[in-house]
Amino acid sequence: MSSGPVAAQLEAENTQNFEDMEKQFAVKAVEHMSTYWSILEKMRGSQLRLTKIDDDIYEHLKKDFPEFDPKASIDEDEMKSKVGKERWRTFMMAYEKSVVDYNFGTIMRLDPASEYGEKETIFVPRMQFYAVEIARNRQGLNDWIYENAHPEEKKPVS
After folding, report:
1. Which pLDDT tens digit goes with each residue over 75-85?
2. Contact 12, 18 (CB under 8 A)
3. Distance CA 79, CA 64 (A)
4. Cα 46 to Cα 123: distance, rounded to the nearest angstrom
5. Are 47 and 88 spatial neighbours (Cβ–Cβ below 8 Å)?
6. Rounded Cα–Cα distance for residues 83 and 77 (Å)
7. Rounded to an integer, what distance in angstroms lies between the CA atom of residue 49 and that of residue 137?
8. What is d(CA 145, CA 41) in angstroms, rounded to the nearest whole number?
9. At 39, is the secondary structure helix, strand, or coil?
10. pTM of this prediction?
11. For residue range 87-110, what is the model confidence (pLDDT) as tens digits?
12. Half-sphere exposure of residue 3, counting CA atoms within 13 Å on the CB side?
């Protein structure tokens, strides 16, 4: 075991490796974002399951965040405030052993009515993405993406 701070243990010639790792994480996040959008273009979000435990995640979200409105734009400052971070951390840790990559960085749209874009997205742990997107999908808030990709089809009557 080492006794010094991490920064003191880093060697200058190895810093390139950390930059490469960051780039790889960014590439994976963009791939995830692109894949999710592609799926939403092929299938209505209201018919999509993101995990095997979507029902549990959705119920847990409603219980722990009763004020959460899937139609509303995400308030990044509130979500990432000290209180917000603690609430979300507690929520996410319940899935540490049951959801693969539960804490892997993922790109999420702030508003369900927006496409992905630099000003319309934030970087969040995967579990936050799942919770928010499952809620949006349950309320049909992502169905417009499919409908835009398939204008020839009529909206299902609910």
Report:
1. 999 999 999 99
2. no
3. 13
4. 23
5. no
6. 11
7. 9
8. 6
9. helix
10. 0.83
11. 999 999 999 999 999 999 999 999
12. 0
